[in-house]
Structure formats: C-alpha cells, structure tokens
Design goal:
Number of helices: 4
CATH architecture: 3-Layer(aba) Sandwich
Distance between the termini: 16 Å
Helix content: 25-40%
Order of helices and strands: EEEHEHEEHH
CATH class: Alpha Beta
Structural class: alpha/beta
Strand content: 25-35%
C-alpha cells in the first residue's frame, strides 16, 4: 500500500476487559485505519481510537469483519468512541434496536452475500474457491 505501519498493542485481562494499550509507531497527523476480526463490547475500538487521537492521529477509521455488538458495546460506541468511521460486514445481523442514525461517526455495512454466493457457485461448478480470494485484489 505504500504506507507506514503502526500497531496498537493490547493486553487482555479477561474475555471483555482490556487492561493496557500502547501504540508502536508514529501516528501524529495520520489518517489511521484499524482492522479487527470481531467487535462485541466495543472496548478495544473505543480505547484504541481514544489512544490514537491522543497521540495525534488526524482521523481513525475501523473495519470489522464480524459485529455481534452487545448492549454495552452499543452504549460505548454512542457515548465514548472517538472513531471517525466504522465499516462492518453483515456476516452477523445488526442487533435489534441498534440505531445507526444516532452514531456520532460514519457507519457503513458491507454485504458478504455476493462473496458467499460466488463461493457457492464455484463449488457447484467445481471451480476453485481459493482463487476467489487470491484474485480479489485484481478486480
């Protein structure tokens, strides 16, 4: 991508409690992109965004594959988050009562249906599913 890399290192003390964060790298004046596999409580996203902004990040954008947000997670994102944007997939349906219009940042849901549909088609036609992912960046 031709960009610098910084890492938010976290130490977990329990299933939903994150004890300590540190940033490895310089984020001052940068537009930061965070990638996470799953967010349930919003604790990591909220704490990491806060730390990145405190270290001078211009903006913080998060991309999350699976979004099984808990009621506490909804509360955190509404009240505590310093994210500028959050992008999730619909691999897990959004929690009932989660009103995206009330979020203080841009929120986007990307559908995984075309990817899953194409994988099913390739399996049915005895084509490579592996190439679906290997060639994804060349479309």
């Amino acid at each position: 991508l031709g960009t610098d890399l910084a890492i938010v290192a976290k130490q977990r003390m329990g299933d939903s409690d994150v004890d300590a964060f540190s940033v490895v790298g310089d984020v001052e004046g940068c537009d930061v992109v965070m990638i996470d596999d799953m967010t349930a409580t919003g604790g990591t996203l909220s704490a990491a965004a806060k730390l990145l902004k405190a270290q001078g990040a211009k903006s913080v954008h998060a991309f999350v594959s699976h979004f099984p947000l808990t009621p506490r997670g909804i509360e955190r994102l509404m009240e505590e988050s310093q994210l500028d944007e959050l992008v999730v997939t619909d691999s897990i349906a959004l929690r009932e009562g989660f009103d995206i219009k009330k979020l203080p940042f841009k929120f986007t849901v990307l559908s995984v249906a075309p990817l899953i549909g194409e994988a099913i088609r390739r399996i049915h036609e005895d084509e490579s599913v592996n190439s679906l992912f290997r060639d994804a960046g060349h479309r």
